[in-house]
Structure formats: C-alpha cells, structure tokens
Amino acid sequence: MILVVTPAERAADCVKAIEDATTENTQSASSLRQAAALLRANEYSAVVVDQLLLGAEPDGGESTLQHAGAAIPVPVNFAISGIERVVAEVRAALHRRNRENIRARQGAQQALRNELKDTVTALLLSCEMALQVPNLPPLAEGKMKAVDELAREIKNKLEAGA
Length: 162
What we know:
Elements: E1 2-5, H1 11-22, E2 26-29, H2 32-41, E3 46-50, H3 51-56, H4 58-66, E4 72-76, H5 83-131, H6 138-161
C-alpha cells in the first residue's frame, strides 16, 4: 500500500494514477497528523510526502516519517510536479527499494551460507577424528558415519546454492 500526503487539490487524481501505475492500493492524507495516524495503523511500501508540508512543519514531518516503518519516503514538490512526474518518482523509488531488498537478501544468504560452511567443515573434521578413535564401538561408528554423511549432504547443498 502507498500513502500520499498532500493538501493539494489534485491528490485524488494522483492517488488514482499511482494505483493504476503500480497496482498497489493507495491512500491519501491531507495533513501530517492524519498521515501519522494512518502510518501507525497500516503498513505501507512508500510514503509520498508533499515537500510543502515538510517545509512548513519540519519537526512534524520528521516525526511522521518515524512512523513510516519500512516504507520508503518519496518527497515530491506537488506545486511544480505533474502527476506523471509524481508517478515516475514513486515507481523509481519502489524499484530502488526492491533492488535494495534483493541485494540485502542475497548478502544475508551469502553470510549465512559462509557461516554454515565453517560449521559443517568443523563437523566433518570432528566426525573424521571420532572415526579414528581406536576400539570405537560399532554402534557409535555407525552413528558417526551417518552424521558424516548428513554433513556432506549439507556441504553439497551449500556449495550448489552458492
């Protein structure tokens, strides 16, 4: 969902154009106070804020955007920007957000993969050392071989996902 915060008369036209362009539900608020209430009640992917409001109430704008959560703020000057320009800004912001999310997810996956590789390597070494213990009971040896096999499967999956 997207939130458009502006007292501009053409806010309804802008909301409709953003919905059509992004296929996301879009709501509007005519003041920062109303926007803050909506931001506390709902989750948004973007918050389009009229720079006129931000300039008139800098502290109010800052506190309102603190309630935005994961929503990307899109400051727009509605006084000089046409609806097409606003829509283009929103689409660009959403694309940037998606790219950033993908990069963050890939980075987290790679970090987890690296951490798991280290753990699996330690597990494999421990299994090899345990299997070299003299007079290892057959039941314990069988269990250690099973653990070793499972660790190798995990290692292969981690390497295939890299």
